[in-house]
Amino acid sequence: MGAGHPVRVQSMTSVPSGDVVSTVRQILDLYRAGCEYVRLAVPGLREAEHLPEIMKSVRSLGCPVPLIADVHYLPGVAELAARSVEKVRINPGNFTDRPGSGRQDRSDRQYREALERVEERLIPLINICRRERTALRIGANHGSLAPRILYRYGGTPEGLVESVLEFARICVRQSFFNVVVSLKASDVGLMVRSNRLLVHAMMKEGMNWPVHLGVTEAGDEDEGRIRSAAGIGSLLLDGIGDTIRVSLTEDPVREIPVARDLLSSITTGRLLDQVADGEPPWFSPFQEPKASVPADASKPVVIASAEEKDLAGFRAKGLQLLPDYFVHPASQGALLKTEFSSGKVTGRRAGRIIPCASSHNGDSQQDDLLLMTLSPSQEGLGLPVWGAPAGKGAGLILDAGYGYAGTAHLTRRICRQVHQAGINIPVILKISPGKEKREVFLVKSSAIAGSLLTDHLITGLWLDSAPSDAGWLTELSFGILQATGARLTRTVFIACPSCGRTTFDIQSVLKRVKERTSHLVGLKIAVMGCMVNGPGEMAGAEWGYVGSGKNRVTIYRGNHPVLKNIPEKNAVDELVRLIRESGEWHEPETV
């Protein structure tokens, strides 16, 4: 991986690695689906001792896929695993220290002593990896940072980066370079900013190592696919990322086609190449994004190509899923604001959508949205000639057609130039699916729009197709806004993809939790399989449902456990009861 090699796709088994037969079967299923690396949870010595048997069985069946051992807490387990598999993943947050262990390492002296303990425990693993030609992945998670990192940096991108660099510098001192790095979080914006900062820091320190990408606890169904595509896709568009995993709370085999669709639908490597040659003045992926849209802009809007009858068909899914505006195909550019009254969906005229060139005719009005068509030929140009006087018009729509390869890069430049020119209007991105399959357009639009929303560059989204598609495209638009945190219209679910550490059926549990609580707009609920990353990765969630033993669950409110080790069969009812008692519950709307 890395250098000029293709971006590699990986996944993780969801069965206990102590169950050799089931593990081997799942590895083979993943390989046949197109997975290029397979990771296994190795929580203890017993599981590590099974690795040679797993490796022998997989190879005897003609499967060459490299295997990765995922180890937490126990350096000795990592050392044993490194003798059997192609790569070992360790977590710098718990390799020598358990999160919440009480030791804060607050003073500079204590901090140095903690790093000395890390180096003392890491060197034996490095020596084994060197001898066995085993790769090492230094993989930090936002939910399991070491106490010293949290005290000094908090749960910031800088803290995540330093967590990896502490271990990476030890590898450099030991002249060990067979290393992969990763920074993961469930928050898309945090994950994107952290990885950008990591690459910048590594470039400064002369570390040229492959980067693994993934959004943790992304969830299931379209929600998980959108969130993963928004995070991973944003970085691939920057040229960051050498191997990816789409983490879904589903059968891991279902992750592979999503990753493949994502890689096939966007172009990678362009922006980072430009930065390496000389940082472009119009955008730096290594800086905290600064909004280039009006500071007083309202929440991001959703536009659809539809008629009233099309919108009425999916009213039952919730009022918040109606687009804010719609364009009737026969209205010659009239923009209609969606309204709902007397049981019917109607539209009130809110302006026109006119081509930029038309504004030269002097007939543009204050409520017009100017439409600029993007094309690859514009990428080498300076400020576009779009014919809009400063402050004239209600907004700018950038029409990217089917979302060609350079859409995100050109949109970034135009948004910056609009802002720098003092034209204080919102920018809306328009993309059309064309004849693409729905699943391909879902990941492509999530990557392109997600990248721009994460950087606060656009304030609206118009996924344009035939009116008959208005329903699913509107849902997709709101899903992209939700995934990037730009606008919340439903409950926020954080759910891990399951692995060999999970002790209950997390897929069915997540489904039951969603059925009971998905109407609680903006409330954040985490469903986590185990205590390794669960309590940390659910940081920011109001409620957490975390596996704590065989068919046992602990329910959290914020960071505090409120019901410990209760039977899993009663846990969803208990979660709902606690939310009701907290005053955060309301009954679903009836339509």
CATH-assigned fold name of the domain at 301-483: TIM Barrel
- The counted number of beta strands is 21
Principal-axes shape call: globular
- Total helix count? 18
Q: What is the helix fraction of residues, given as a range?
A: 25-40%
Class by alpha and beta content: alpha/beta
Write out the strand line-up for the largest beta sheet, numbering strands in chain order.
1-2-3-4-5-6-7-8
Mean pLDDT: 84
What is the rounded Rg?
A: 25 Å
Distance between the termini: 52 Å
CATH architecture of the domain at 301-483: Alpha-Beta Barrel
CATH class of the domain at 301-483: Alpha Beta
State the low-pLDDT regions, or none: 275-282, 380-391
The largest sheet is: 8 strands, parallel, barrel
Concise overview:
The protein is of the alpha/beta class. It contains 18 helices and 21 strands. Among the domains are: 183 residues, Alpha-Beta Barrel (TIM Barrel), CATH 3.20.20; 91 residues, Sulfite Reductase Hemoprotein, domain 1 (2-Layer Sandwich), CATH 3.30.413.10.
Properties at a glance:
591 residues; alpha/beta; TIM Barrel; Sulfite Reductase Hemoprotein, domain 1; eight-stranded parallel β-barrel; eight-stranded mixed barrel; 18 helices; 21 strands; globular
